[in-house]
Design goal:
The complex is a heterodimer of chains A (about 140) and B (about 140). By secondary structure, chain A is α+β, with helices and mostly antiparallel strands. Chain A is built from 2 helices and 5 strands, in the order βααββββ. The longest helix of chain B has 13 residues. The chains are: A alpha+beta (about 140), B alpha+beta (about 140). Chain A: InterPro entries: HotDog_dom_sf.
């Protein structure tokens, strides 16, 4: 299990392989009307769906082994390149900063970028995220 | 339709209610956020959440759906530029009644393809008037022709 003390600012990871399928897309957009990405073609998939997929990759590959305490939020999200059905996506993360919370010394706040890339290496979603991670020395 | 030309900074509209059933919370979590505390009351009881609560990404999808797909306020949205300051402030539980207070922050000069750039703040509250989430959405909204 990785705790706050085990994280190093600057560390990068690449996770997974997630293919965008018509079936899953149809299921998502039938449940949620979310906006298209500005300027994207009609066959591009909605950007917010990509954020949900990025979260799934993070849970499967990183959070299962991390003393994660949830997230207070995301500072910014954008979608530089359109994604389409059939694209195969990989998640890249980079740890930008880590600090202990003065008000909650049993945990640390990390900021990291999450970038979802297509099979050509183009960024289809970028997220500047925050997460709370337990400190080893105060974990019971 | 609510066009770019109908919007002015300072305007406020309240949209809702919306929410998610227990089955919907579980289905979303299984698909996109299968952390134990989003999959069972038992696992959640050990955490800050206390009992089964919705993934923050599910809550965000509900906010966007309320904004984009709303017969009471049919915004002529042509797309999203970016989302800023998405914040999860308190847990969203199954069958909470959520409403969004939308404030127009900024309306920029029109851009390509007959749309203008509009910045909206969304504040999502539950049935007890507690703020559960917020975001700033920068959208393209069609102009009146």
């Amino acid at each position: 299990m990785r705790y706050w003390e085990d994280l190093a600012v600057g560390e990068t990871h690449r996770y997974g392989r997630y293919e965008l399928t018509e079936k899953e897309h149809a299921d998502f957009v039938s449940r949620f009307a979310v906006p298209a990405v500005v300027g994207a073609d009609a066959d591009a998939v909605p950007g917010y769906w990509l954020c949900c997929i990025a979260m799934r990759l993070l849970v499967d590959h990183a959070l299962t082994d991390m003393a994660s305490l949830g997230s207070p939020g995301v500072d910014r999200i954008d979608w530089p390149t359109a994604a389409r059905i059939g694209d195969v996506l990989t998640l890249s993360t980079e740890l930008l900063s880590a600090r202990v919370l003065e008000s909650r010394p049993e945990m640390g706040l990390i900021k990291q970028t999450m970038t979802l890339e297509n099979q050509r290496g183009d960024a289809v979603a970028r997220m500047w995220t925050n997460a709370l991670v337990a400190r080893r020395e105060t974990a019971s | 339709m609510i066009a770019f030309d109908d919007l002015m900074p300072g305007q406020v509209v309240v949209l809702g209610p919306t929410g998610a059933s227990r089955d919907e919370v579980l289905a979303f979590a299984r698909a996109y956020d299968p952390q134990p505390f989003h999959l069972s009351d038992e696992a959640a009881s050990q955490t800050y959440f206390g009992r089964l609560s919705a993934s923050g990404w599910h809550t965000g999808a509900l906010m966007l759906d309320l904004l984009i797909n709303n017969p009471d306020w049919p915004l002529a949205c042509r797309g999203c530029h970016e989302i800023r300051d998405l914040r999860w402030r308190a847990p969203v539980y199954p069958d909470d009644r959520l409403s969004a207070r939308v404030t127009v922050i900024d309306c920029d000069v029109p851009e390509a393809q007959g749309a203008g750039r509009v910045t909206l703040d969304l504040l999502l509250s539950n049935q007890d008037d507690a703020t559960v989430a917020q975001m700033t959405a920068v959208l393209a909204v069609a102009r009146r022709i």
